[in-house]
Amino acid sequence: MTEPSRLERTLSQLSDQPGVYMMLGEDGRILYIGKAVSLRNRVRSYFQDSAAHPYRTLRMVQRVVDVRTIVVTNEIEALILEANLIKRHQPPFNVRLRDDKRFPYLKVTSERFPRVVFTRVVKDDGGRYFGPYTNAAGLRELIDLIRIVFPLRTCREPIDGKRKRPCLQYHIKRCLAPCVGYQSEDDYDKLVDEVNLFLEGHYDPLIERLQGEMSAAAEHYNFEAAARLRDRIIAVRRTIEAQKVVWRSRIDVDLMAFARAQGQACVQVFMVRDGKLLGQEYFILEGAGEQSDAELFSQFLKQFYTARTGNYGMNGAFEAEIDASPLALRAARDQQAPVAVKARARRRAGFESAIPKEIQVEAMPEDASVIEAWLTEIKAQRVRIVVPQRGERREYLALVKKNAEQNLRAFLVHQEATEHASASALTELASGLDLPEPPHRIECYDISNIQGTNSVASMVVFIEGRPKKSDYRHFNIQAVEGPNDFASMQETLRRRLRYLRQDADRPPVADGDAATRAIEAQARKRERFHEKPDLLLIDGGKGQLNAVAEVMRELDMWGIPVAGLAKENEWLYLPGNSEPIVLPPNSAGLHLVMRIRDEAHRFAIAHHRSKRGKAMTKSVLDTLAGVGPVRKKRLLAAFGSVRAIRNASVDEIAAVKGMTPALASQVKEALSR
Questions:
Q1: N or C, which end of the chain has less CB nearby within 10 Å?
Q2: pLDDT computed for residue 443 by the predictor
Q3: Helix or strand or coil: residue 309?
Q4: CA–CA gap between residue 303 and residue 87 (Å, rounded)
């Protein structure tokens, strides 16, 4: 009797509880993520001989070598977890938002005196999030408008009553200086509430509130405050006039329609609040080519509203379980920590306003009842998903669909032009460097330092002529002292290429053992530099290139093409060739390598500045064992400076919160040396 495979053993041990399952391929990559009321029944149904799957599902099942599962309490938790895992891992057989990690949001922070900020990361941290927006420039303009109309603070300075005078923002009427007590916390909270009403699209209550405040200010002869309120009312009314009334009744609804072409799909969303069109965004979906309309809307609704509600209701321990890293565990702990009552109320209100009472779609999702229950629980009101069949609702949805078709056409034209330009540039580059074929993966390296201090190196990666920022890496130069760019470049390349050397020295795996191959592939994937580049590009001329050539000989890596780009004339150099390769000034290939080199330069300088800034703010306290960031902050707040701590007695130091007599003695002894 043959021993059962790893997949067969996993299938026989599946739980009958609700949860999320992840299909794994031979290379360890997650192929598909799904949810189930019963993990046992759902997962096993994929591998039954009698199952009639669509072609796309059959292709996926043929590649599965193992299944991972996460058990949860109920189907709603499974729904939220599924959406988060799809967003994180981007499985190829799932419908997913294209570049959804890049979508910007407007955030009203959960601090004691909240700020309005631009962010691309949504967390359940007590803040209120508005978005996602697909136009970052438009969002920044909106934030600028809010800061003009509603003078909230923009600084991160703690409001502790220690500041003696207001900053410039107060004098230019962009802040009312709560830091020095010119504005009370209650008045500041009223301003925050007005911002939230403005962003939610509830303009009538906002205008009534502002008019009441203006009248009260005028009655008390506070004409300067009344004038500010008048200007705020005018700005809000201008915003209202720019918005189109699309509904006769004052309804809150999200309308969603999609368009398909060339294996791509675009979902258009119109957000209507109080009968007015508050905003519209479109999202390009990947992996939607063979999916049914119902499945497409199911996946989109889950990912769209999970992002808008900051993963509300998701147990942070799930994410920690998946990552199994200290940072993930700390994030989970932070999300489960108690939140101030005021911040918690704002967060809840933010999630409620992000969800309308009605969602209109073109096709009813199969799990619509679960999605409705999930959204209803967050909003604390009944949320309905409907498919309009006739009348006014159907006409509006047809208008949304026309916008989806137009945006998809524009996206496809742009995508085709970009791909053509990248292909042309890579072909020209391959021809100029005499490469056998256009390079798929290009890695570029640069060194940054000031007189040899805080020396760092950068590695940027371009795939098919486009940056892949998740593969970018920084190197802190460790073994080189002084301003020696050649030796620094050699250290960087040794540290990067040694991983390829390890792969080359690794013994082969038996062909017949798919499970072992999967484990081996996962181990290789954990190595940070497992992918072999098709071209190494060095920022520098002959000197840097010769230094790299020594490393290539040392590691026997001559199979990887390498070139140096000298900035003075933008000439390319190859090892062993004294004559430069001069590409025409208007060459697409030259423009590509210049762009890659500039990106490596920017990335190196950014890390160098960060490292230099940390070094400049380092104090003696950072070198003391047992004194971490919190204790350091408390000591400096109590005494004002390191000198004052040095002059203080052991008892005075021990009196600071978090300090002990033994630790205070160690601090006193260390500072007295």
A1: N
A2: 92
A3: coil
A4: 7
